[in-house]
Amino acid sequence: IDDGAFSGCSHLSGPLYIPPSCTSLGKRSFSGTNISDIISSHPVHIGENCFRQCQNITSLTIPDNSVIDKQAFWGANLHKITIGKGVSVGEEAFYYNQKLQEVIFEDSVKSLDKGSFGMDKSLCRMIIKGTIESIAEDLLYLKEIGVDMAGIGPFIPHPQTPLKNAGGNNLHLSLRTMAIMRLLLEDINIPATTAM
User: Fold this and answer.
1) Are 121 and 95 in contact (CB under 8 A)?
2) In Å, what is the CA distance from 93 to each residue of 51, 52, 53, 76, 150?
3) Can you list the pairs that 97-102 forms with residues at least 24 positions away whose Cβ atoms lie under 8 Å?
4) Nearest Cα to 152, choosing from 133, 131, 132, 171?
5) Are 100 and 117 in contact (CB under 8 A)?
6) pLDDT tens figures, 55-111
7) E strand or H helix at 111, and its extent?
8) With the C-alpha atoms ordered 5, 33, 127, 89, is the resulting torsion angle positive or negative?
9) Closest residue by Cα to residue 30 from 43, 18, 19
10) Per-residue b/e over 69-93, b at no fewer than 16 CB within 10 Å?
11) What b/e string do you get for 117-144 counting C-beta neighbours within 10 Å, with b at 16 or more?
12) Which of 158, 167, 90, 150 is nearest to 124 (CA)?
């Protein structure tokens, strides 16, 4: 879909179904519309400012291996986001979603640029799911991009929160991961401020 194709079409409402033949949504292609949901089962490239200020989208699932460009959902009305495996999230992609409360990363994220969730003042839950394989991929990715610092800690659920039954608290896995990270990335700083 070309840049600006439906920008400002305020009568465009309801769910947006993205067929497998559509792999790219251009810059500002749906900004200012009244779309209520985005449905796609395949990777899609979401262009810069594509859904800027789309106030009717409250929940969003990003398919595996998708690309979300800079400010794609700037100023939308998102409450919950689920991000699939291998997704690249651009600078300020979800900036200024003031009602955003929860972000779930289903598995390894390919990249997360600065300010991706900036000014999202209601954000109180960020859940990162993963497997042993995805943890290994994440460590290799840290080596590939040459980080200077990385922290690792177990998820410790509190009994008085909605995540009280979410599992976690795997100190042994965290210690093993940190040991492997130290061997793989021998010169990086590992802060003592994590939950260990």
Assistant:
1) no
2) 10, 9, 12, 10, 23
3) 97/73, 98/122, 99/58, 101/125, 102/126, 102/127
4) 171
5) yes
6) 999 999 999 999 999 999 999 999 999 999 899 999 999 999 999 988 988 877 888
7) strand 111-112
8) positive
9) 18
10) bbbbbbbbebeebbbbbbbbbbebb
11) beebeebeeeeeeeeeebbebbbeebee
12) 158
Residue with tokens 């990715």: 141
Among 88, 44, 97, CA closest to 70: 88
Contacts of 73 (CB under 8 A, 6+ apart): 50, 51, 52, 54, 57, 60, 93, 94, 97
Q: Which pTM was predicted?
A: 0.74
Residue entry with tokens 């009305």:
77
pLDDT tens digits, 22-46: 999 999 999 999 999 999 999 999 9
Q: Are 32 and 53 in contact (CB under 8 A)?
A: yes
Cα(53)–Cα(34) distance, rounded to whole angstroms? 9
The residue among 45, 25, 43 whose CA lies nearest residue 35 is: 25
Q: Which residue has the tokens 């262009």?
A: 47
Contact 66, 38 (CB under 8 A): no
